[in-house]
Amino acid sequence: MAIELGSQPEMWARAAELRAEQSLLPARGERIAVVGCGTSWFIAQSYASLREAGGHGETDAFAASEAFVDRGYDAVIALTRSGTTTEVLQLIDGLRGRVRTIGLIGDAESPLVDLVDQAVTIPFADERSVVQTRFATTAFALFRAALGEDLTGAIADAERAVAEELDPVLTDAEQYTFLGRNWSVGLVQEAAIKMREVSQSWTESYPSMEYRHGPIAIAAPGRVTWQFGEAPEGLADDVAATGAHFEAGALDPMAELVRVQRVALARARARGLDPDAPRNLSRSVVLDA
């Protein structure tokens, strides 16, 4: 995990240069859905928010098992590292001949490659670890570049995130709540699940403006409230009043996620856990027929 995590700036730079692959993604104005499971679903949420907010077209994100795709979409994107996840394969198979399907896939030899109408494969970002780090963020980097974003700043921020010394306030906390706004909401959900998977930590995640509608009750000394991107006015003071530490993430939210991945890894090592093989998890969820 450490090697894969640290390679993310290089992976994002490679994704930003994949012009042919980016051109296979839906064009501006198309109405689309993006589906995935677990980490891929959270990245789909961030892409959907970013794409629609940028005026590129109506974009919905669904967990593959709960997708409502019979809504006249121009295309459906399936995001999956392995290309073997049962729910994704079943959903895409059911759409064959009815709507254009695109797969953004880590394993170029996976069965999904032959099921979709267009396969965008990024095997250079695939991973040995059960836990996703670089595939998810590299896929999002490709999405962002396809929307016309310049990733230079995000890549520089990721380099800082990989190299910085971790603050014990972050690595030694009892509990973590991750907050985000707009397209970073999906990323904070990914931050929370990453911490749970890797280090068995107590984590939660919410849209920033929702935090004061109940979840702030969990804030206390020895706990961390971690904001991705700009915080709502007054939120830092409200958290400080509880005695919790407010971490105002100053990096690009995608690079802020790298910081969280590093904290998760450090906590796993401190607890004697294997970060590459979390309990009860496998690289891909393949269900019996």
TrEMBL record:
It comes from the Bacteria. GO terms for biological process: carbohydrate derivative metabolic process. GO terms for molecular function: carbohydrate derivative binding; isomerase activity. Residues 20-159 form the SIS domain. InterPro entries: GlmS/AgaS_SIS, SIS_dom, SIS_dom_sf. CDD domains: SIS_GlmS_GlmD_1 (cd05008). Keywords: Isomerase, Repeat. This is Sugar isomerase. It comes from Agromyces badenianii.
